[in-house]
Amino acid sequence: MNILFYISILFTLILLLLNYRRRCSEEDKGIFFWLTFLYRGILVFVFSLCFSAIFLGVISAINTPIYTAKVVSQIGISDEKSTNIQIEFKDRNNQLITKTLKYNRDAPPKIGKTIKITYKEGDDVKTLQTARITIGIFSVFALILGIAWLFTVLYSLGQDYSFITKILVILTLFIVVPAAILIFIGILGWILWEYYEGRKDLPQIAIGLCSIFITVLILAFLGYFKLLFGNKEGMISDLERQISGKLDPF
Predict the structure, then answer these.
(1) pLDDT digits (tens, 9 = 90+) for 86-99
(2) Over the chain, what is the mean pLDDT?
(3) To pair with 171 at 20 to 30 A between CA atoms, which of 42, 78, 88, 149?
(4) 216 Cβ contact partners less than 8 Å away, ≥ 6 residues apart
(5) CB neighbours of 163 closer than 8 A, spacing ≥ 6?
(6) Angle, helices 204-230/232-243, rounded to nearest 10 degrees
(7) 168: nearest Cα among 246, 234, 109, 106
(8) Residues forming a β-bridge with 84
(9) Residue 83: helix, strand or coil by DSSP?
(10) 183 near 46, Cβ under 8 Å?
């Protein structure tokens, strides 16, 4: 982490120098000039440090070895949502390792069952599913920070960054909006699943509303993609016009 900190400082200083050279011809170098100059430096440093840390974290998680572990015992309840199980597996050196793993309390694996886990010496053991979800979430953060970092670099170098508008529009249309709809569908679907699996404490009116909203969201999801692919270029152009000119925070 110390290396990332110093690299981010060095990168920030270089970009600030390039930015200053690009704007050194400005006659007015009053307090506002230096405040915005300091603001740029803080922004570049934060984006550089966060992007580097998250990107390296994602790479490390992807390279974490995957093992097949055997459940040897169930230790007990960890909290309201998870239970502790004891697992055994052999690492790459063929050494038998015993670890404690938190697992979903509602569906703990039976003793003797094998499960896929990820483990690197010095880190906690995770199920493969949990590791993949974590990688997915941090990859999204890395993508967002990467775009912000690229914008600061291009701006400091005085290069054209208008194509970032199209990137943001495409991400919004094809990822953010569909993902938001699917998340709501998943949440409501999980509530219905819990009800039909035996959780009868939910009121009937809540179940009815969940069913209605899921139906509406599914139809909206299908209609959205029909509209999107039917007039893709038009929607992208409209959003580009709305976003363009708002990317310069300086």
Answers:
(1) 888 888 888 888 88
(2) 76
(3) 42
(4) none
(5) none
(6) 100
(7) 246
(8) 76, 102
(9) strand
(10) no
Token pair 């309840």: residue = 77
d(CA 165, CA 168): 5
- Helix or strand run (H / E) with residue 233: helix 232-243
Burial of 218 (0-12, 13-18, 19+ CB in 10 A): middle
Give the residue carrying structure tokens 């959205």. 224
**How many whole angstroms separate alpha carbon 235 and alpha carbon 169?**
9
Beta-sheet strand order (sheet of 66-77): 96-104, 82-90, 66-77, 114-118, 126-127
Per-residue pLDDT tens over the stretch 65-111:
888 888 888 776 656 667 788 888 888 888 888 888 877 666 677 78
Residue with tokens 């509530």: 191
- 2: Cβ–Cβ under 8 A, 6 or more apart, which residues? none
